[in-house]
Amino acid sequence: MRRFLLALAALFLLQLEVSADERIHEFTSEATVNVDGSLDVTETISINAEGDQINHGIFRDFPTTYTDSRGLRVVVDFDVVSVKLDGRDENYALESLSNGVRVKIGDKDTFVSRELHQYQIRYRTTRQLGFFDKYDELYWNVTGNGW
Fold this sequence. Notes:
Largest sheet: 5 strands, antiparallel
Number of helices: 1
Distance between the termini: 51 Å
Radius of gyration: 21 Å
Shape: elongated
């Protein structure tokens, strides 16, 4: 009976390991429109790291080049204010992309522990508002593309 219970417990633990799910659990974004028309944005990204694709951290791509309704190229400002991992300041680096900026969060010499983590990215961006005769518009790609 004892062997049966041990085998059953081992099977249960193996099932937990196999069913580990590395993914983004939650993505929230809060934006404040400032008097000068800029946006202050705080993004919170909750992930479960399992060492599959998330090893040293995450990256987040931000489009900063758009084509407007007249076909003109528009480049917006993007400035990182802070990056946190589980409430503590976290290392990050910026990398230029053809249509924007990649924020690489983490440390190449440190592995992210296998568990649920919360990243917070605070940034300021400009030129996201459109002013028209009958309405004003916030034109901002909340999640970006391709990341």
